[in-house]
Amino acid sequence: MDAREFQQIGHQVVDLLAEYFDHIEERPVFPDVEPQMLNELFAEPLPQAPSPAEKVLGELEEKLLPYCTHVGHPGYMGLITPSPNPVGVIADFICSALNQNIGAYTIGPAGVAMERRTVRWLTDLVGYGPEAGGNLTSGGMMANFIGLKLARDWASGDRAQQYGIHQPWAVYTSEERHVSVDKAVDAVGLGRTALRALPTDSEFRVRLDALESALAEDRRHGIRPMCIVGIFGTTNTGAVDSIRELRAIADREGMWLHADAAYGGGMLLSNESPMRDRGLELADSITIDPHKWFYAPLDAGAVLVKDERRLTASFGMKPSYLTDELDHAKERYQYYVHGFEQSRRFRGLKVWMSFKRYGARQIGEWVDNNVRQARHLYSLVATHPEFEAASPPPMSAICIRYRGADPDEAKSKELHAQVVRRVEQSGKFWISTTELKGKTWFRINPVNFRTRTEHMEQLLTLLEEECRSALQNVRLAGD
Ligand SMILES: Cc1ncc(COP(=O)(O)O)c(C=O)c1O
Q1: Is 139 in the pocket of ligand 1 (CB under 6 A)?
Q2: Helix, strand, coil % over all residues of the chain, rounded to 5
Q3: CA 443 to ligand 1 centroid distance, Å
Q4: DSSP reduced 3-state for 148
Q5: 3-state secondary structure 413-468
Q6: Which residue among 158, 161, 204, 210 sits deepest, i.e. has the most Cβ atoms within 10 Å of its Cβ?
Q7: What is the pLDDT at residue 434?
Q8: What is the reported pLDDT for 404?
Q9: Under a CB-based contact definition with an 8 Å cutoff, are residues 308 and 135 in contact?
Q10: Neighbours of 254 (CB within 10 A)
Q11: Domain 93-355 has what CATH class?
Q12: Alpha-carbon gap, residue 81 to 445, rounded angstroms
């Protein structure tokens, strides 16, 4: 492809995407298609001969675009993937063109500096001091893994990096944690049974009395408490654990405190209730994902560390083929000794460009709109005879359930599942189901700058209709 063809196809792609964004609301949120049909659509042997770029683009229009989940559609309120902001989309295009490899300074000097500045903006946002550092990661899963690895290495007096862990250790978190915490506890070699998933209160915050009992029990059995993972915005309901109290307990017990703000970190940008007084900065490490509630396109997660030196303690290996012998003054920042990943996409660019183009205030307005939408739905449900909400939403995630459902939980689960399927088929909205304290709920979470308040009213009307009709079906099937 020469420069002329690149230019032509590039312009076509930009026109296509501008049109796509402009008319996204007219598309069905989720495609009406079966997986088998999609597999057949792409079933072809490895192409041997070249095709003109226009033809390849035409194929995308025919085979990809109609069958996407349009997460930028205002009715997408599902698993936490935002409407990507258009500047972030352009940044990713530039990022691929330059292909800077942020893992090592020599493969992207300015990119490394921009990423460090972006990380600094995030560490400032959470309230960390100048000694803090961090990495942009593939997402919250990787950030939680790095947080747990930092915890393990610190708790072992930096012996675990060499010798592993051979005694029983434990990690404490809420029953409402994201599954990435379980995977991280496994990945750092403790095994999933080392995770204590503690009960929560009526607003889904971890119960401190349950934490104290679990600690006492483990101490009695010679199990060493290693780390607490506090949640700053749970996946289901946006609940925020009492980070200050968790800090005090972690200090008393000699434990690391990791905070998972993968979703809830976006709340720090809010202009109306920024939650900067919740003690997040007291955590030793924090997961915070720009690709969730900062509206950056995938992927851009982040792990932040109060003391950047802990990153080098955990990851600071320097093989000869990576050591930069030209850096006599030791001024070149090497991400590969400060993080787990080696080759790394220049994720900082889209976060940097988004902050520059919109400013934190504008992004904060989007966050506030989403919070207002969730609260509006809550107020509608509070006076609705057929629905109930799990808790008042502190953020934008809200769980509601159909009270008219059969008291038999198995039937209620079936009804809620049927309804989300019908909602999916409507093409107007996409929501999911979840379980909270043994009951099934609709999980609704706008992290979407196109969603408007009226969408919450339309969604509730649709849920009303579909729940009533599904109740009939479930009852008929039971007769
Ligand atoms: C609280 C929380 N932590 C971690 C994750 C995992 O993040 P990712 O999907 O970016 O790996 C999620 C995902 O929704 C989350 O809600």
Answers
A1: yes
A2: 50, 15, 40
A3: 15
A4: helix
A5: HHHHHHHHHHHHHHCCCECEEEEECCEEEEEECCCCCCCCHHHHHHHHHHHHHHHH
A6: 204
A7: 98
A8: 83
A9: no
A10: 10
A11: alpha beta
A12: 10
Domains in the chain: boundaries: 3-68, 93-355, 364-478
Report, as ranges of residue numbers, the positions in the chain whose pLDDT lies below 50.
Answer: none
Q: From the CB of 230, is ligand 1 less than 6 Å away? A: no
Of 99, 120, 103, whose CA–CA distance to 112 is shortest? Answer: 103
Structure tokens at 240: 């925020």
How many Å lie between the centroid of ligand 1 and the Cα of residue 320?
Answer: 35
Name the CATH architecture for the domain at 3-68: Up-down Bundle (1.20)
Q: What is the predicted pLDDT for the residue at 312?
A: 97
- Six-digit token string for 65: 């675009």
CATH no., domain 364-478: 3.90.1150.170
* Ligand 1, atom nearest to 177 Cα: 1
CB 263 within 8 A of CB 256: no
Is residue 118 within 8 A of residue 133, CB to CB? The reply is: no
CB neighbours (10 Å) of residue 319?
A: 8
What contacts 286, CB < 8 A, 6 or more positions away?
126, 147, 232, 258, 259, 260, 261, 265, 280, 303, 304, 305
